[in-house]
Amino acid sequence: MSNHEKIFLIDGNSFDKDGLLSFCYGNIASPGTPGREREIWEFLLEWLSPDDHIEVQTSGSTGKPKKIRLQKKHMEASARLTLDFFNLKPHDTALLCLPVKYIAGKMMIVRALTGGLNLLLAPPSGVPDLGRFEKIAFSAMVPMQVSELLAKPDGRIQLEKIETLIIGGSFLDQSLEKKLKTMENSIWQTYGMTETISHIALRKLNGPEASVWYSPLQGVELKKDDRGCLAITAPHIGVQDLVTNDLVEFNEDGSFKILGRTDNVVISGGVKIFPEEIEKKAEALIPYPFFFSGLPDEKLGEKLILFICRDILTQSEKQNLKTSLSGILARYEMPKEIINLQTFEYNRQGKLLRKQTVDNFLNKSD
Asked: For residue 149, is it within any domain?
């Protein structure tokens, strides 16, 4: 079937290639088209153009953020892996509720076009509006969207409209994961980055297959580098020995879990401490945004600090918190100091910028 004969489905409307191009141009030309919706039509034009690649901005998972080129054939290969893994068929519905400026949103469109899915559009929002949809076969969200939806009175009902939901883009806290375990639909957490185009591994969050271990997709080869960080090879998506900054532990069956980022590791008195692992233990005790990090220390090299985002934290509150933490943390995991800050730094995708937050604190303290 040629591109002109191929049928594309958007919100139940069918187009051949020429019709879809005309539809996109019309929406872009309309002054009433919202900016985030305009991004959808602009990306569709880019995807349907003769160019064999697109340019995207990385998030910094493997180094400093930068622009890279992704081959369209590799993006299609990644899309097919997802379509096959979840057994998605032509005319199945796929909900796009992520910004298209990022790779996750782009790949929802590519999966729909590649698999002949019916792409449903919801304005990107911290609380996706699912009210007009009855049933959705597949969608992708970030943890914040899932958390905000579940906070609504009908959030669970709305979220369970999605038969298969993948969650990625940032850390998933244990309290949210606990809520998801009781959901009736199929929910997965993804592991991947812009450089791998999409996820290269998945772990089930609910049901009998729920696991703390990620399983790599077909054709993905993984190993550790000399730092203990994950290195990825996946020729079908153009990835060869891609070294990440994610410290990894492998299971005997080849599955893995992420211990934390090497650039977040604190070495205090010769002991290597993984802040993300401590945060998982501590989150039930701290009802405010927080993170653990290191500050320079003359004796220890680095000392472990607990940063909490709160205007005021009294000495009594700090001491009570330390007492509570001592019941669940090992001695070396206990913070030497608790520091409260009015704000934390985040990137546009809602990821905490630990180093920038700590640097801002140090600069103000000088």
From this structure: yes
Q: Which of 186, 218, 250 is the last residue of a domain?
A: 218
Of 269, 258, 313, residue with least CA distance to 290: 313
Does 209 lie in the same domain as 65?
Answer: yes
pLDDT in tens, 143-188: 889 988 999 999 999 999 999 999 998 778 788 899 999 999 999 9
Q: pLDDT tens-digit profile of 17-66?
A: 999 999 999 999 999 888 888 999 999 999 999 999 998 887 655 556 67
Residues β-bridged to residue 115: none
* Range(s) of the domain holding residue 58: 51-218
Residue 358 contacts residue 364 (beta carbons within 8 Å): no
The 3-state secondary structure of 69-112, one letter per residue: EEEHHHHHHHHHHHHHHCCCCCCCEEEECCCCCCHHHHHHHHHH
Distance CA 267, CA 276 (A): 14
Rg (CA), the chain: 22
**Phi, psi (5° rounding) for residue 228?**
90, 15
User: Between 364 and 248, whose confidence is greater?
Assistant: 248
pLDDT at site 170: 75
Q: What does the alpha-carbon distance between residue 129 and residue 209 come to, in Å, rounded to a whole number?
A: 29
User: Do 135 and 276 belong to one domain?
Assistant: no
**Rounded alpha-carbon distances, angstroms, from residue 165 to 124, 243, 271, 328, 330:** 16, 28, 39, 32, 35
Q: What is the pLDDT of residues 206-228, one digit of tens each?
A: 999 999 999 999 999 999 999 99
Residue that has been written with the tokens 């958390």 in this structure: 147
The rounded distance, in Å, linking the Cα atoms of 76 and 317 is 53
Burial classification of residue 108, based on how many CB atoms lie within 10 Å of its CB (0-12 exposed, 13-18 middle, 19 or more buried):
buried
Say yes or no: 55 and 151 in one domain.
yes
pLDDT for the residue 133: 92
Q: How many domains does the chain have?
A: 2
